[in-house]
Amino acid sequence: MTGSVMAAGSVVDTPGADPVIDVRDLRMRYGDKEVLAGVDFSARAGEVVVLLGPNGAGKTTTIEILEGFRARSGGHARVLGVDPAAGDERWRARLGVVLQSWRDHSKWRVRELLTHLGSYYEAYSTAEKRRPWVVDELLEVVGLTAAAGTAIGRLSGGQRRRLDVAIGIVGRPDLLFLDEPTVGFDPEARRDFHDLIHRLTDVDSTTVLLTTHDLDEAEKLADRILILATGRIVASGSADELSRQVAGESEVRWTRDGRRFVHSAADATSFVRELFGQHGEAIGDLEVRRAGLEETYMRLVREAEGEGR
Fold first, then answer.
1. What are the ABC transporter domain coordinates in residue numbering (predicted)?
2. Would the pTM count as exceeding 0.70?
3. CATH top-level class for 21-94+173-242?
């Protein structure tokens, strides 16, 4: 599922059911400083939306408003059909939150803590979705089965972060908020986490709103990437769609007669056509590289910040 590239101030609407998140003209002001100056976006069931932006762009503020932890200054916000400022316990039971850090009692054992937290969700179980997640199954999914009886204070950093994720999904949320979820993960744990996100979206149709500074992770996970800068969403789309939005030259690489060549071309398709017209089957190892997500992201942010001055 992918969205359409949009300019600042427009909204991506996907046909089908009502959006899980619907935000229009969201505003937040702290004194004289306007942090959010009209944020617009929506997210559908089973969609992974990644929110990117420089430090101070308002990513955390946006998520805290949608979680119901912070009152907005203005604009429209609906999360699971409810104004988050008025969400009750039944509404909160449908949310999952994974923060950058989570304070707890180090003497709790992993299974005990998850069983305890899961018990709060039992009253909100439905025929469509049984809550909470069966603890032993959850432990297996997040890779903590071997540590089930370990005191939290004795977990490694990576295990601790896996537990953070388990805490966030123990209630089998319809909407999951993830703030820098893979900080401290080794490559294997990061791959397992990505598999978990795909399972949640594919099997349970869980919607995921994720912030990260890891652009490679954003590209791998996102159905749609939102770039937040100067208090607004300045671009939205898949990584490929965003790269197409940024006008720039592509890098064409190829080999011929044992020699390697590299050329930058504004119109890569026409250049490659001419290349084959001249040299035909002598061309080998052809590769066309469009601007990557990092380059695209940096350019869009710089342009937005330049226009905002």
1. 21-255
2. yes
3. alpha beta
